[in-house]
Amino acid sequence: MEKRYFPSIGKEISLLGFGLMRLPTVNNVPKDIDYPTAELMVDKALAGGINYFDTAYVYHDGQSEIFAGKALSRHPRDSYNLATKMPTWSLSDLDQAKGIFDKQLANLKTDHIDFYLVHNLNSDNLTILEKIGLYEFLRAKKDEGAIRRLGFSMHDGPEHLGNLLDRYAWDFTQIQLNYIDWQALKSGELYGRLVDKNIPVVIMEPVRGGALANLPAAAVKVLKDHDPVASQASWALRYAASNPGVMTVLSGMSLPQQMDENLSTFNAFKPLNPEEVEVLKKAAESFRLANPIPCTGCGYCMDCPSGVNIPVNLAIYNQFATMNLENPQFAPFVFINNYRALSEGEKAVNCVSCEECTHHCPQNIPIPEELKKINDLVASASS
Q1: d(Cα 17, Cα 326) in Å, to the nearest integer?
Q2: Can you list the positions of beta strands (E) in 90-146?
Q3: Is 152:118 a contact under the CB 8 Å cutoff?
Q4: Which residues pair with 172 in a beta bridge?
């Protein structure tokens, strides 16, 4: 396994990290993790050289940390690094944060967190952090040894990142970076600012919630014409990992086969060459045409107060956009059938534009506007 060493971190970290956000489940119920399969994947990861495991208090409806504690505690503590996060948006006072932190240590069956993050430190969450003194509490935990390295994750722009770096001292930062968002979400500028500050970078969403492993046909052709063998996911992972300021690239794997494939990519890791970078630029253009809504399916927008299944509605629309490029006569028929398969309460028509979802969307998608587009498309496809 390719590993990276940063003096400020003081240890070698596997270039591939296991993100425990999309673990295999029973009957697609997020809280019902398929323990035998997921534990097999953890064991494969460790055997393959992965030593960075990323979870969060809210993943899998609160069950991811519990799984991580049970699965990883079967192995020597010094064989893996744990990363988890404080859900700042849910905090009303510091006592609540203290209770969550203690519960996280219990969930993870450990006396310390190797990499601790303030989760999604946007401007709203920064206000909460400062109001309750969360940063000072976490720094104290670091001084005690309960936290070894302190960082944050974020989905905001370069200006907000600069503000966070100026205000506080951080050991590492986690950002979304892939070959679509390098420009679309200014991930390249975020990465550059962190490198300038000598802050190691953890990458999330390198495959954009799986979307870059299931590309539209035109983008697939671009990649296959250059390399008929390489998988779509391997292209995306190599793009993220080819940046030297990256400490680890998180992959939220759901199947043992995905683990095997990703281990193969990183056990014989080759940075992208200039020609391959140009290939990905062409694939990115095809992707953008076919996926007008930049949803990764993370589910942070849920639960909708009106009952709308937001990620599924957006996925149905993106599927229509892809099909409309390749088979415009058939696309409306497939779209309307997929939409009608939703329960009445889940449909976009129930959106009341309360904007609750937009406050939680890491991609800053104007969700009510997109749901209105879906309603308009339903009306036209049904006529």
Answers
A1: 36
A2: 113-118
A3: yes
A4: 151
Q: How confident is the model at residue 332 (pLDDT cuts 50, 70, 90)?
A: confident
Distance CA 103, CA 86 (A): 11
Report the candidate in 338, 310, 318 with the shortest Cα–Cα distance to residue 208: 318
Instruction: Quote the CA–CA distance of 183 and 186 in Å, as a whole number.
Output: 5
pLDDT at residue number 326: 63
Under DSSP, the state recorded for 176 is E
All residues at 6 or more sequence positions from 346 whose CB lies less than 8 Å from its CB, including other chains: 307, 308, 309, 312, 313
Rounded to 10 deg, the angle between the 256-267 and 35-47 helix axes is 10
If one counts every other C-beta atom within 10 angstroms of the C-beta of residue 27, the result is: 6
* DSSP characters over 197-255: TT--EEEE-TTGGGGGGS--HHHHHHHHHH-SSS-HHHHHHHHHHTSTTEEEEEE---S
CATH of region 3-289: 3.20.20.100
Interhelix angle 274-290/232-241, nearest 10 degrees: 120
Two tokens at 194? 């962190």
pTM of the model: 0.81
110/115 Cα distance (integer angstroms): 13
C-alpha span between 2 and 15 (Å, rounded): 6
Q: What does the pLDDT read at residue 288?
A: 80
Question: What is the band of 331 on the pLDDT scale with cuts at 50, 70, 90?
Answer: confident
Spatial distance between the Cα atoms of 328 and 138, rounded to a whole number of angstroms: 54
Q: For residue 159, what are its two tokens?
A: 């200006």
DSSP 204: E
Paired strand residues for 19: 54
- How many angstroms separate the CA atoms of 19 and 14, rounded? 13
Each domain of the chain, given as residue ranges in start order, spans: 3-289, 310-382
